[in-house]
Amino acid sequence: MVLRKSMFLIACLALTSFAFAQKVPRSVAPDDLEKYWVMMKSSVQGDAPLGGKNMDQPGCAAVSFIVEGNGRASNIAIEKVVPPGGYGELAASIASNLEFEPALMNAGRDRVFSSLIFPFNLPTDPAAREAVMRQCVIPARRWSAKKPEK
Question: pLDDT tens, 1-11?
């Protein structure tokens, strides 16, 4: 009986340590995300907020998220929105509909923390487009369960 309880305790501890090892996702720069996870859809829909402000202007929104082992985004956080208004909610809605497949180097389907910038109503001039997108670049950071300071 004692041996059985000891084996059960050891198995529980092993599973617990495995679960803790899986909890912290790998932090990946947006440019390196495709090395781990490849986006499956070329276009994704999102829900625009009713009465969203400044949504008729050129802008962008940076959103961070975790790609889970099942290829879906979770822990979506709006990091930066230019101009202030409804683009953040729209970007978060789009991110919630993203689907990924693991890249070859991610055969273990490791969880990954990263971010993307979503463009909206960008001008046709390449320099003007770049100027808008540059405003939404966020500094690289590691995953933390805490909310980012704004």
Answer: 555 544 455 55
**Residue bearing tokens 């305790």:** 9
Token output for 28: 């990946």
CA distance 133 to 113: 21
- Higher local confidence (pLDDT), 20 or 123: 123
Does pTM top 0.90 for this prediction?
no
Query: How many Cα neighbours within 13 Å face the side chain of 68?
Result: 10
Question: Residue 62 in contact with residue 137, Cβ under 8 Å?
Answer: yes
pLDDT digits (tens, 9 = 90+) for 81-111: 999 999 999 999 999 999 999 999 999 999 9
Q: How long a stretch of residues is the chain?
A: 150
Which is it for the CA torsion 36, 41, 43, 49, positive or negative? negative
CB-side exposure of 23: number of CA atoms within 13 Å?
A: 9
CB 113 within 8 A of CB 97: no
